[in-house]
Prior knowledge:
The protein is mostly helical. The chain is built from eight helices and no strands. Helix 6 crosses helix 8. The chain is globular and about 40 Å long.
Amino acid sequence: MTNNDALRSIAYLLHVPDAKLVEIVRLGEGEITKDxxxxxxxxxxxxxxxxxxxxxxxxxLNGLVTYKRGPKxxxxxxxxxxxxxxxxxxxxxxxxxxxKDVDIASIIEKSGLRxxxxxxxxxxxxxxxxxxxxxxxQFLRNLMKxxxx
Length: 149
């Protein structure tokens, strides 16, 4: 899933105005303008489309966690997970929306897919772990649709 697709999907999920999305990036220690955000939100076949850089997406995801859960008590700036992969997006959504494994499995099951606890755990492992598994676009899309619906 491209950063632009994920950004659009999360924006739809949140039901917030564009100005709030810019504020969420700021919460993640980033700085973008509303015009830049609108260019990132366009589809790749639309005029004015600009690919969303990994750094901006990582800042948006960190800001999303802060927006949904509040600032961390230690007030340290969160680490940017670059490059932003589907697994990183999945991890940040889990933290932001305070989802447990059973919650994610239930949401995915409603979309017609099934995921075991072991498969789900593999998405959250480090990429160099032998049981690591890449999160697919379909899985991530179905999770975001389930969260929105």
